[in-house]
């Protein structure tokens, strides 16, 4: 299977998933939506195995890495600002739940930064040893 054929099949699978979710919402059936999503994911996996050429190249990987980097920074910044807002708001209004939510978001932000630092160091070590 060529990449052009794979893109057509992928589009068909996306339309199938969209149709199954829309029908599931209209008839208020969560199982139908999950089944359509599961079948669609299985079809994408099965058809991507049959592609004879590589689906991603260096440019695609560079773009994916850059977009993941920017997304991480935006999400981390938003989580940090939200945690700061909830902590301050909870402290001023004596709202324990709001303050607890802020602290929880703060821990999630710190966990995210820690995971990023660990994975960055790991991949940096791998790529520096191969040179």
Shape: flat
| N-end to C-end Cα span | 34 Å
Approximate helicity band: over 70%
Main sheet, how many strands, which sense, barrel?
none
Report strand %: under 5%
What quaternary form is this?
single chain
Let me know the number of strands. Answer: 0
SS element count, helices:
4
Q: Structural class, from helix and strand content?
A: mainly alpha
The helix/strand series, from N terminus to C terminus, equals HHHH
Radius of gyration: 22 Å
Low-confidence runs of at least 5 consecutive residues: none
Instruction: Indicate the mean pLDDT.
Output: 87
Explain how this protein is built.
With 131 residues, the chain is mainly alpha-helical. Helix content is 88%, strand content 0%. The protein is built from four helices and no strands. It has helices at 3-26, 30-49, 58-93, 96-130. The chain is flat, with a radius of gyration of 22 Å. The two termini are 34 Å apart.
Keyphrases for this structure?
flat, mainly alpha, single chain, 88% helix, 131 residues
Secondary-structure blueprint of this entry?
Blueprint: H1 3-26, H2 30-49, H3 58-93, H4 96-130
Helix pairs in contact: 1-2, 3-4
At a glance:
The chain has 131 residues and is an all-alpha fold. Helix content is 88%, strand content 0%.
